[in-house]
Amino acid sequence: MTSSTLQLTTLPSGLRVITDTVTSVDSAVVGVWCDVGTRCEDPAENGVAHMVEHMMFKGTPTRSARDINEIVENVGGSMNAYTGHETTAYHMHMLKEDVPLALDLLADMIQRPAMPPEEIERERGVILQEIGMCTDTPDDYVFDLWQETAYPGQMLGAPILGTAEIVSSLSREALLAYVQKFYTPRNLVVSVAGNAQHEDILAQVERLFTDLPGDTSFIKQQGRYHGGEIRKARDLEQSHVVMGFRGVSRHDPDYEAAMALSIILGGGTASRLYHEIREQRGLVYSVYGFHNAYEDTGEVIVYAGTGPEKLPALMPVLCEEIVKMRAPVAAAELSRAKAMIKARLLMAQESMMSRANRQAKHVMHFGKLPDLAEKRHRIEALTVDDLARVAARVFDSKPTLAALGPLDRLESYETIAARL
User: Fold this and answer.
1) 3-state SS class at 245
2) What CATH architecture does domain 228-419 belong to?
3) For 221, which DSSP code?
4) Fewer CB within 10 Å, N- or C-terminus of the chain?
5) Where are the domains of the chain?
6) So which residues are the catalytic ones?
């Protein structure tokens, strides 16, 4: 693995600066991560976090949106951003000599977003198209339905893109107020991974990030998993089914065990679901499972897409495979799950974007730099008994079922729950 030097400095303002120096590459990923997302929104402003993310690229008092695009691409760089339920991030990938330029641009965008009214209206239309595209993509939309049902009445269950109704009415004042409230030093992390030195980055950040708003206090709504069902009949070729259970948070001692459990169940082509439901029975084209963790809760989720005529055969087998997870897994299955988790960790180290993202999120969530050796030790220490304990904990929770498409042949929620 490529050697690196990992450093973290917290400035007097509370702004944290991370460098993961890798001198064997000729570029670096430079980004600003913000420890807020959809779950911090006011329900009446659902979608504001995502809209702010879009608008950050639409100019500052001294640079237009086109200026920003051309400055980055004139040196062969690229830029992007993402919004999640708990995190928003802005990042650029530049050659090593252009890292100062990336920092200058990001500092300007984050601290001085112009948000011209004409750009807001243009981007509002873009986001409404994005919402429509998600709704028209059933294997995406069904997960939004699942999230909404698992966390009813909570922003953790709200769609990241927002709703068309709310996005259509979000004002410039609401966007700027969101930035003023949440884009504060203690909520931000500057993360750089690649060919850049910590002292150089630190000096530039201290010089450039001087106009951030003052810190304000806010309380994140606690995530409370409920369970239940939602069905939306739609004239589609396939029926899309998502079933999930309460998982564990990223701080839970059972976090690694939940990851391993979900891999054995549905992570990859050697998983139980793929082998039994697709390869042995041919009941689906797509079936998989995963574990997703938040600050205070988590979820183990299974997805299956199938022709509606196969639903009566699919659901009993799907439930049976979930029930089987309560029994001790085979040693070979646990070994494979461990290998997959470790391989993902190590392979991610080969991507500067993955490294910058991992370091930033770990510092935001845990207040310290990640320790890869410690993580590998926790994975290696997992036992069959650990997974049996976590399986009982997860699959004893009330299931959440979301289904989209032709659903006449999907059995009742009560029947499905009784099988579990």
Assistant:
1) strand
2) 2-Layer Sandwich (3.30)
3) P
4) N
5) 5-208, 228-419
6) 53
